[in-house]
Design brief:
It is a single chain. This protein is α/β, with parallel strands linked by helices. The chain folds into two domains: about 1-170, Rossmann fold, CATH 3.40.50.620; about 200-315, TPP-binding domain (Rossmann fold, 3-Layer(aba) Sandwich). The protein is built from seven helices and 14 strands. The chain has a nine-stranded mixed β-sheet with strand order 7-6-5-8-4-1-2-3-9, with helices on both faces. The chain has a five-stranded parallel β-sheet with strand order 11-10-12-13-14. α2 crosses α3 and α4 runs parallel beside α7. The radius of gyration is 25 Å and the shape is elongated. The N and C termini lie far apart (about 70 Å). This is Electron transfer flavoprotein alpha subunit apoprotein.
Amino acid sequence: MKTAIVFSGSLQSIIRQAAELNGYISRNLSYTEEMEAWIVSAQEIDVKTIGFSHQITCVKLARVRTNHVAEEYLEAITKIYECTKPQILVFGSDWFASSLAVRTAYRLKGASCIGVKSSQDDDGCLLVEKAVYSNHLTAKLRIRSSPFCLSIAKGFKEKPELAAEPPEVERFALGSSLRTDWLLGYRCEQTETPEGLTTAKIVIAVGKGVGSKEQIPLLEELTKHLGGELGASRPVVMNAWLGMDRLIGASGSILSPEVCIVIGASGAAAFTVGIEKSKLIVAVNHDEKAPIFKMADVAICVDYQEFVDELIKRLHAE
């Protein structure tokens, strides 16, 4: 299969991508018959500053006007594709590259997969492996619609054989008519992501039964008194009562605390898979038929606010 390795963004970002993409090539793309690199950037790129795998035979360069408008990148990638039509497009692991992989597949009527750990040819289809359920399982998927647009998983550190000389370079003149003047400025801010949820000994897990975002401070107060961490079911984070980093369950964190106090969560399977390894589960719900009670070690059928107020009062007394 003919493969294109897609580099995007600033020179610094492209150099980081090259380190991971070369490792992915070394481990997974030995079956590829022909391989080329596409570089799309707003900067003038000197290919001598980038280490390319020896399997890459040529480089296609496309210059966009800004590093921050994805539509320009998509237009450039589509135009290069129309000239060479590779079966596989491999993108980097960062969020921007992943979004380009998905959006490129949609534009080219192909298929996409992000966070890919391995890939192999399967009689015209592509078999890929990726981590699922918060990295607790590995899924093997068959992708049928070409072009296959893959964004790789993070962490490829192999040091493959690099090309002794830079590959042949071909420049693409885009002449884009897209407007970019609507973007007046751009700033990146790093946010701190709490890491205590997965290692906490005590977890308060709240569901939509707590009623509203206005109730969260009370539950945060209880969590603080207990010296634990606050987590949530999907309806809570989807309503922005808590951040996505607090999601518990199949698509969030899988926990194994000493004590898990579940407040206002009915007990859907996608949620309970995230707490079933807890040593002690205390469930608080006003509905005596709530499924969560079936797995709870301690079941308390009461209005949760009564429970929280009384527990805080007793903790204050101590």
